Amino acid sequence: MTYIRYIIISNNHIVTKDYDMELITFFNIGWQRWRSHGLLALFTLAGCYIIHLYSPYADLNYIITLACGYISLILIVFSLLIGPYKLLYLRKNPVNLDLRRDVGIWAGINGCLHVAAVLLARTRGDVIFLFLRPKPQGVGYDLLMSPQGISNNLGLVATFILILLLVLSNDISLKYFKGKRWKFLQRFNYGLVVLAFIHTVLYQRFGNRARGFVILTLVLAVAVLVIQAAGFFLYNRNASRMKNHHRVRQQ
Ligand code: HEM
């Protein structure tokens, strides 16, 4: 860890203080990133307001459950669109892009708020019954295999990945895991998006959700498939161009 030492003179005393440099850089992220965080916070609030308009008599817990669930899904998809988009303009996809990182952080925050709201509303201390059911013999538990149970279990795995990605979204983790390992862990994002889609569609089906939400989910799924396929194509094309370029230079 790097420390910075400050000497403070107060009341004729000289005090030296060590500050953790990494903690300072954690918050010293520049106005552009603060602006992104501000916009993402506003997006979250706007999402809650839209759900309030959709369901005016719903309580705050329901609004947070639905709004944060959908905002998290939108942001997970958005974070997967940024890399391929940048590939169009940059030759190589850098390991970490600030916008992608900030979008990922807010996907994580919203996902956690969604889960917290679900746990508060649907369980009274018996969280386990969202995911498991007691064995008929009375000892131990089985996985809950009802549509809700499957959806909750997929949501649970998605939440673990979301928290992992949230924890990785800072310079300290990037430095600790180094580029390649960090990028490998970031690839869990692909698993996350699949789980989040299945979880959402299952709940949409038995929640009889309005058509607008279903169309939004479909548009997001198509967007992520098309843009990721384009990104894959561009990445391979750039890689083979670079290889050819090196081969020509070596001859
Ligand atoms: C332990 C983890 C999770 C549990 C137990 C859970 C549970 C639930 C429940 C009970 C609902 C239905 C809400 C209602 O209609 O009243 C729901 C909906 C939803 N969840 Fe989750 N969730 C989890 C994780 C996630 C995560 C990580 C995401 C992130 C994308 C997510 C996205 C959604 C979305 C978009 C909906 C709305 C689907 C609809 O229109 O009904 N959930 N979830």
Radius of gyration: 23 Å
Number of domains: 1
Beta-strand segment tally: 4
Structural shape: globular
Biggest sheet architecture: 2 strands, antiparallel
Helix content: over 70%
Strand content: 5-15%
As residue ranges, the low-confidence spans are none
DSSP summary: helix tally: 8
The set of bound ligands, ions and cofactors reads:
protoporphyrin IX containing FE
Distance between the termini: 46 Å
Strand order of the largest sheet: 1-2
Description:
Helix 7 packs antiparallel against helix 8. With 251 residues, the protein is mainly alpha-helical. 74% of the residues lie in helices and 9% in strands. The chain is globular, with a radius of gyration of 23 Å. Bound molecules: protoporphyrin IX containing FE. Protoporphyrin IX containing FE binds next to helix 3, helix 4, helix 5 and helix 7.
Write the layout of secondary structure elements.
Layout (H helix, E strand, L loop, with lengths): L2 E8 L2 E8 H7 L2 H25 L5 H30 L8 H25 L9 E3 L6 E3 L3 H22 L2 H16 L1 H20 L3 H40 L1
Antiparallel strand pairs: 1-2, 3-4
The protein binds protoporphyrin IX containing FE.
Protoporphyrin IX containing FE (HEM) binds next to helix 3, helix 4, helix 5 and helix 7.
